[in-house]
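REVIEWER CHECKLIST
Item 1: Sequence provided? yes
Item 2: Single chain? yes
Item 3: Sequence as submitted:
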Amino acid sequence: MLPGLGLGVALKIDDGTTRASEVVMAAILDVLGVFDAPLRKSLHAVMEPTVFNAAGDNVGVVRASSTLSENVS
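Item 4: Structure as written out by the authors:
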């Protein structure tokens, strides 16, 4: 709930883990202007978590689609 904005946010992600929902919720809140620059910086690991393979190698990041900001209003 974002009472200061008069909004509530709900989402459903069907991938079976929380990783995608955490990234998308953080991105939605960022687009809505909830985060200031220092908070956004401290949440970078949540907003773009690193993905490692079974060998522990960094194989990428999870991030919200760049079109998210076009669809959140």
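Item 5: Key structural point noted by reviewer: The first strand starts at residue 50 and ends at 52.
Item 6: Recommendation: ____
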